[in-house]
Every structure is written in C-alpha cells, then in structure tokens.
Write a structure and sequence with these properties.
The structure is a single chain. The chain has one domain. The longest helix has 31 residues. The chain has a 3-stranded mixed beta sheet with strand order 1-3-2. Helices cover 68% and strands 7% of the residues. It is built from 6 helices and 3 strands.
C-alpha cells in the first residue's frame, strides 16, 4: 500500500526536528566553548536571498546581530564537517559583532556621503570609490576573523574539509575566494604546528 502524502510529510517533519536537535546540540557546545550565550538557530526554507552577497559566498548560513544564526533547511542533513564548519564560522561572526559593525559602517558611509555631496560635490566620486574599496577589504577581514574563530573551535583540518564540502554543495569549489580562504587556514595550521 503506497504511503499517503500526510504520512510522508510527517516523516519529513520529524526528520527535520531530529536534525535540528543535532544542530542545536553542536551549537550549544560551541557557544559554551566560547563562553557566550547559545544563539537561537533559525531555519529558513531556502538559501538566504541577500542580493549583495557575492556569488561565491555560501548563502546557506548567516549570523545576525540579535544572537541568531540562520541556516537553510537544504543543508540540515549535510555531513558533520559542513554542519560544524557552518556553525563555527557563523559563531565567529557573532563573537566579533560583524553585523552590528557592518550596519554602523553603512549608516556612517551614507551620512558622510550626504555631507560631502552637500558641501563638496567634487569629492563625491573619490569618496564613493574609497567606500567601495573599504567595503571589499572589510568583507575579507570579517570572513578571516570568522574563520579564525572556527579554526579555534573545530580545528583547521575540519574547517578546510567543511569549506571544501560546502564548495561542492554550492558548486563554487573553484572560486578564487574559496581557494584563498583554504590557503589562509592551511597557513594558520602550519604556523600552529611550528609553534608546538
């Protein structure tokens, strides 16, 4: 006798609930390791539709200022490596208050642009170019800081495996940015071995 839709959807819901508990247990352990309150895990039905996120960047996990980590449902059943990588990396963003700092930077840039536009319009284009360059550097800095926290939590090898596997999931494993991040983590791993 074929399984009806209701029974099938109930099985999916219970799997999602069980998977969520696994994610929450890992999140709780990592937050305790960092000595911070456990963030709320928020599940979203699809990769986060953030238009300003570069195509190479994973949109299946995001940290937000109000102590929340957003995870796309399509990665709930991923491997332990990806789960631990995503959680550790997003905790890194929370620990360093990246969302708050980014919002403050955008507001400050907008206000400064307005003042320059009103007072010295001839400087508007160079100012915008400077803001764009600073924003690109800030993005790399944030990702590096988050990766450093992740490396502290789960180790360089686990971070590298998670990043590589996430690249295969999102079909972005050949993107230069992902390769740069892997190389940076590998260098950190070699430096920590040399220091032992």
């Amino acid at each position: 006798m074929p399984m009806n839709y209701h029974m099938f959807s109930q099985a999916l819901i219970s799997d999602k609930a069980a998977l969520r508990l696994i994610w929450e247990d890992d999140l709780k352990a990592m937050a305790a390791q960092l000595g911070i309150p456990t963030p709320t895990l928020v599940l979203v039905e699809q990769p986060l539709p953030i238009f300003f996120v570069p195509s190479w960047q994973d949109r299946r996990g995001k940290a937000w200022a109000k102590n929340r980590i957003y995870i796309a449902v399509d990665v709930l059943a991923c491997s332990t490596n990806v789960r631990r990588y995503l959680l550790a990396h997003e905790l890194g963003h929370l620990v360093h208050h990246h969302t708050t700092k980014t919002i403050a930077g955008i507001i400050s840039a907008a206000l400064l642009s307005l003042i320059i536009w009103l007072r010295l319009p001839s400087l508007m284009f160079p100012t915008l170019c400077c803001f764009l360059f600073t924003g690109l550097c800030w993005r790399d800095y944030r990702e590096n800081q988050a990766d450093d926290v992740g490396r502290t939590l789960i180790g360089a090898a686990a971070m590298m495996e998670g990043i590589q596997e996430m690249g295969r999931i999102t079909k972005t494993s050949n993107i230069n940015e992902r390769t740069r991040r892997l190389n940076r983590i590998a260098e950190g791993q070699q430096e920590s071995r040399a220091g032992m």
